[in-house]
Amino acid sequence: MHFRHIMLFYFKKGKNTVQTTKQIYGSDAVVERTVQKWFTRFKRGDFNAEDQECSGRSSVDDDQIAALI
C-alpha cells in the first residue's frame, strides 16, 4: 500500500509512469505495468489506495460443499 501512496504522490506532481517506476525501481517491488494500472485509476479520479474487491472467485464454505456432495 505504501507504494500506491508513492505512486499517487508522483502522479499529483505530474510525473509519468516511466519516471515514477524509475523513482521506486530500486526496491524491485513495482514494475511499470503496475504503475500504469494505478495511474489509469488516478486519471479516472479514483484516488483510493485500498484494494478493491474483484469479481473473481467467491469464497465458499466447506460445509456448503460437503452438503452439496
From TrEMBL:
<dbReference type="GO" id="GO:0035861">
    <property type="term" value="C:site of double-strand break"/>
</dbReference>
<dbReference type="GO" id="GO:0044547">
    <property type="term" value="F:DNA topoisomerase binding"/>
</dbReference>
<dbReference type="GO" id="GO:0015074">
    <property type="term" value="P:DNA integration"/>
</dbReference>
<dbReference type="GO" id="GO:0000793">
    <property type="term" value="C:condensed chromosome"/>
</dbReference>
<protein>
    <submittedName>
        <fullName>Histone-lysine N-methyltransferase SETMAR</fullName>
    </submittedName>
</protein>
<dbReference type="GO" id="GO:0000014">
    <property type="term" value="F:single-stranded DNA endodeoxyribonuclease activity"/>
</dbReference>
<dbReference type="GO" id="GO:0046975">
    <property type="term" value="F:histone H3K36 methyltransferase activity"/>
</dbReference>
<dbReference type="GO" id="GO:0042800">
    <property type="term" value="F:histone H3K4 methyltransferase activity"/>
</dbReference>
<dbReference type="Pfam" id="PF17906">
    <property type="entry name" value="HTH_48"/>
</dbReference>
<feature type="domain" description="Mos1 transposase HTH">
    <location>
        <begin position="1"/>
        <end position="46"/>
    </location>
</feature>
<keyword id="KW-0489">Methyltransferase</keyword>
<dbReference type="InterPro" id="IPR052709">
    <property type="entry name" value="Transposase-MT_Hybrid"/>
</dbReference>
<dbReference type="GO" id="GO:0003690">
    <property type="term" value="F:double-stranded DNA binding"/>
</dbReference>
<dbReference type="GO" id="GO:0003697">
    <property type="term" value="F:single-stranded DNA binding"/>
</dbReference>
<dbReference type="GO" id="GO:0000729">
    <property type="term" value="P:DNA double-strand break processing"/>
</dbReference>
<dbReference type="InterPro" id="IPR041426">
    <property type="entry name" value="Mos1_HTH"/>
</dbReference>
<dbReference type="GO" id="GO:0006303">
    <property type="term" value="P:double-strand break repair via nonhomologous end joining"/>
</dbReference>
<dbReference type="GO" id="GO:0032259">
    <property type="term" value="P:methylation"/>
</dbReference>
<dbReference type="GO" id="GO:0005634">
    <property type="term" value="C:nucleus"/>
</dbReference>
<keyword id="KW-0808">Transferase</keyword>
<dbReference type="GO" id="GO:0044774">
    <property type="term" value="P:mitotic DNA integrity checkpoint signaling"/>
</dbReference>
<dbReference type="GO" id="GO:0031297">
    <property type="term" value="P:replication fork processing"/>
</dbReference>
